[in-house]
Amino acid sequence: MIKLLEWDTNFFGYKIGEAQGLPDFEEAKRENYKLLYVKSKTRIPDLDSRNCFFDHRIIHRKELTESTEIENVKSLRGSPLTPDLINLAYEAGHVSRYKLDPQFRNDEFKKLYKEWIQNSLSGKMANEVFGYFENEKCLGFITVKIKDTEASIGLLVIDPTAQGRGLATVLTRAAESYAESCGANYLLVATQATNTNACRFYTKNGYNEYNEELIYHVWINA
Ligand SMILES: CC(C)(COP(=O)(O)OP(=O)(O)OC[C@H]1O[C@@H](n2cnc3c(N)ncnc32)[C@H](O)[C@@H]1OP(=O)(O)O)[C@@H](O)C(=O)NCCC(=O)NCCS
Hints:
globular; 10-stranded mixed sheet; single chain
């Protein structure tokens, strides 16, 4: 049984669905699907033999304990979308499945990540966005969504010229502090297993591997 993903279909302009386990290819063709996302805890040999792209997503989680004062960080909630923020969003998208799957041929990742930061600034997709500033230039940002006692990081990115200087550490502390002040006990973040920089970063900052899944991309008639 394939479930239509309405948002993805409208946003990318072709029919996208989701299936559990090996999908019914006849149904997919009959219903004119172009792409299926197949989520699974384990590898699916039939999809591997078709050379389907898959994303190994790891959820890291940290228990929150205390709030602290953070410098050089300011809220971007309600701020306009600027070229700097768009470029940073593209940088965040560079390691995503929308960029790494070569069968996305129309820079879909750019469209998606621009929408993501725009909807985060406006409050639709995030409760808060923090930017790290030096000489009034934004060098990175983090978005945070609160859902009851669990909060999650959506986007975290630092300008490549400023990486390795502890800026993401500062932004993550700001996000943790904010989430804790909103009543959250945990902060979660999803990243790709292949994004070793990010996995190292989260481990170093006290996050533990909490869950994982594979997301296959099955292109129909591709
Ligand atoms: C992951 C990312 C946010 C880390 O930002 P950062 O400001 O460089 O991280 P910090 O300086 O605060 O922390 C450094 C630690 O993170 C890790 N690290 C991640 N990326 C690094 C980089 N490019 N250079 C050096 N260290 C990096 C290392 O473990 C490092 O600690 P170490 O030097 O003791 O090994 C940044 O690399 C980035 O923007 N990447 C592209 C977007 C992305 O992958 N976002 C996360 C998706 S969930």
